[in-house]
Specification:
Elements lengths: L12 H21 L13 H8 L2 E8 L4 E5 L2 E4 L3 E7 L9 E11 L14 E10 L7 E5 L3 E6 L3 E6 L5 E9 L3 H6 L27 E9 L2 E11 L6 E2 L2 E7 L8 E2 L5 E5 L4 E5 L1 E9 L5 E10 L1 E3 L12 E7 L3 E10 L4 E12 H8 L4
Antiparallel strand pairs: 1-2, 1-5, 3-4, 4-10, 5-6, 7-8, 8-9, 9-10, 11-12, 11-18, 13-14, 14-23, 15-23, 16-17, 18-19, 20-21, 21-22, 22-23
Protein name: F-box protein 15
């Protein structure tokens, strides 16, 4: 009886306690579901189940320079092999000139009944995934355009579509890789993103042989349509391939035509709103999952990319037909793809695929000193 009575608690105490217990319960259940790892992908085997049982969704919070906030619920969602594409569109966008930032957040229902779909109006726990500046949006990387919209890439993985005529928001598209997606979407707070636990270096027992036993899975897709879905195993490189702080990992060789791969269908990034829809030619979303020799995810991303015209490669065979390239770069490395258009079959062929991996990331990952 010496304990504080119910009346001695401050207003709202038990509500906060109950919500905290519910959130802890969901987090514990998710941790159990995500324990099992798929040996072929290196990613949690039950990510889709985790998304279902948690009722997890995503919102964007548009913040005006005045401090006013607009919370936007997603309109479309596509669950792919190794990523989620979330799309927002509507008629009630705030004026772009008034906006300063965009927050991408995961939202988890607090009062979740796993046997029923989540209620839209119930309390939700927000987890900040990324914050983007909208102040100078048109100075960002222009990915492509069609007769209605121009699309801009904000790193990491966000596409913003602007109407050509009005220079106002048409749609927003977030591309989220499965790697740590559930943790990032549920374990952070409204103000701070989830911080990954510190990496413990993996022992490289044969650094003199360079990188070996790597596995790459790469998808090119748009709104549920896949143009490429391929896995490359037993990739390796030698120490001699180090140049300008990067290790060169060749996946598809120019000279070996048996490795060349076609893209399926007409490549384009599909979009839609309440009023119009379209497809931006030569653009798509690239999902990359690179596993190290131990089968652990070394580099994972989901990002919009676009094919650009390029000269015929000087260090490879001559190809009859226009040649193109696709490039992606972040702090871990660079992906460089060379393609050729085959007029007879009306399809693109990948004739070269090369990864350039940062020496700094490799040394941090393995505790080496290349």
């Amino acid at each position: 009886m010496n304990a504080l009575s119910v009346e001695d608690k401050e207003a709202g105490y038990w509500k906060k306690e109950y919500i905290a217990k519910r959130i802890a319960s969901v987090k514990a259940a998710l941790a159990q579901v995500l324990k099992l790892v798929n040996p072929y992908t290196g990613l949690p085997a039950k990510t889709k189940e985790a998304l279902r049982i948690s009722g997890l969704g995503w919102v964007i919070i548009l913040k005006e320079k005045s401090g006013k906030e607009h919370v936007m619920e997603h309109a479309d969602l596509y669950i792919n092999h190794s990523s989620v594409m979330v799309v927002w569109y509507g008629k009630n966008w705030p004026c772009l000139a008034t906006l300063s930032t965009l927050d991408l957040c995961g939202v988890t229902p607090v009062l979740m009944d796993w046997h029923k779909p989540p209620t839209k109006n119930g309390p939700r726990w927000p987890s900040l995934i990324a914050k983007y500046s909208l102040s100078n949006l048109t100075d960002s990387t222009l990915v492509g355009c069609d007769r209605f919209v121009r699309i801009f890439h904000l790193n990491p993985g966000l596409l913003v579509g602007l109407w050509k005529r009005a220079e106002e928001l048409a749609f927003v598209m977030a591309n989220l890789h499965f790697h740590h997606l559930v943790e990032k979407s549920t374990l952070g707070s409204a103000a701070l993103p989830y911080e990954l636990p510190p990496h413990i270096p993996l022992l490289d027992d044969s650094p003199e042989y360079g990188l070996h036993g790597y596995q790459l899975h790469v998808d090119l897709h748009s709104s549920g349509t896949f143009y490429l879905c391929s896995t490359f195993r037993n990739l390796f490189t030698k120490q001699g391939y180090i140049e300008n702080g990067y290790v060169k990992l060749i996946v598809i060789h120019f000279q070996n035509s048996t490795e060349h791969l076609p893209l399926i269908g007409k490549v384009g990034l599909s979009w839609r709103t309440d009023v119009f829809d379209g497809c931006i030619k030569s653009c798509s979303v690239m999902d990359v999952t690179l596993l190290d020799e131990y089968g652990k995810p070394f580099w994972c991303f989901s990002s919009p990319v676009c094919m650009r015209s390029s000269p015929n490669p000087s260090d490879g065979p001559y190809f009859v037909g226009p040649t193109y390239c696709v490039d992606y770069e972040d702090s871990t490395g660079t992906v460089h793809v060379e393609l050729v258009w085959i007029e007879e079959t009306e399809e693109y062929f990948i004739v070269s695929l090369v990864l350039y991996l940062s020496i700094a990331k490799i040394n941090h990952w393995f505790g080496t000193q290349y």
